[in-house]
Amino acid sequence: MIVARARQRSGRREERVSRTYRLPLSKVHAAQKALGAATATETIERALDLVVFQRALIDGTRAMRGIEIASPAAER
Q1: Are the C-beta atoms of 31 and 25 separated by less than 8 Å?
Q2: So where are the chain's domains?
Q3: Which residues contact 28 (CB under 8 A, 6 or more apart)?
């Protein structure tokens, strides 16, 4: 059964759902250590945040292709 909950995060409410995933425990522990997360849930949330951020960086970089960026030192 999926249970929806609301949680306050960054000033906005997000819908939360309970899900079950079968993940290799060694990967969860390695990611938890690398991210400094206290729980498996926090580990997964941080990892997902990083994936979303990576996509934003890639999209932003692609959007800037062909734009010349001058160093501030070159303007002096």
Answers
A1: no
A2: 21-62
A3: 40, 43, 44
